[in-house]
């Protein structure tokens, strides 16, 4: 099969003991995978490419694999109420269980991380079918989230052994989503540095950026964040924790409703955010609202961009600039009833940062939603 992440560099740095080729897939445990798959196909433009379930000989779960560009999302539901997948969904609601990383050597990835202190979840195992073999291993990260190492260089099937190629039964039109830009984790108070150290010591990541409560604060609430990245920059994980504030922060709200640490959002890249967001809005995807006054000030800070300013304002897209260029971004409202997981749409025009100049406007818009929910 075609590989679904960014092109690999010509050579890995010799000191990189955990070379990563990118994000292989993100798996959500959900209450109704069939209906969730319909939502992602119809609203977000993902194509159904593979399936595992009773019809394919898998008796305990149903999993739908959805793909757009280089992004793969897996939606999984348990078939019985006493299954661990059902327990996860009851506790957390629909949420991310697996952040899977594409590697050339899953066994070595497992050995290198576990000898540095990672808690093993799945020892390396080879699974096969008529399309070849895949080696999978897994380690624990924050909360109940896990990282799987996926080695698929000897596999030509639709996804993994145990899955069958499957096609969407509804018309699907992509919206221009390209690849995973970054995935953000929310952890409990006092745990951010612990998990940053985990990624540095156990996985060989480097600290890329730090935001404190002076950078990310409003009148009512604050948070702190650190961004870690692997050696080639293909995998970036911001880690957030709450900070002292007058009211409940968005991180605390997440932890209260998710019942622990977990993946807060996934940022997905597009080459044309105006077209992508316009299409998503037309399909009913809801985004956070920033007030019009934001656009009275933003252009003085950001300067010239190629995109149409009026369209940016009409679609309520946020803009920021760093030393290397600018970026455009927009955040969805939570995509389930619990105020937990959401998506970010991002278009980078050179910028390598994460929209620091938008934090205040963004978090004030989140607080307006919290207030509507009675959670501020």
Oligomer: single chain
Main beta sheet: 9 strands, mixed
Structural class: alpha+beta
- Proportion in β-strands: 25-35%
- Series of H and E elements: EHEEEHEHEEEEEHEEEHEHHHEEEH
Number of helices: 9
Look at the structure and give the mean pLDDT.
91
What is the radius of gyration?
20 Å
Distance between the termini: 47 Å
| CATH topology grouping of the largest domain | 2,3-Dihydroxybiphenyl 1,2-Dioxygenase, domain 1
Poorly predicted regions are 5-13
Strand order of the largest sheet: 6-7-8-5-1-4-3-2-9
By CATH reckoning, the class of the largest domain would read Alpha Beta
How many structural domains in the coordinates? 2
In short:
With 376 residues, the protein is an alpha+beta fold. It contains nine helices and 17 strands. The strands form two sheets. Strands 6-7-8-5-1-4-3-2-9 form a nine-stranded mixed sheet.
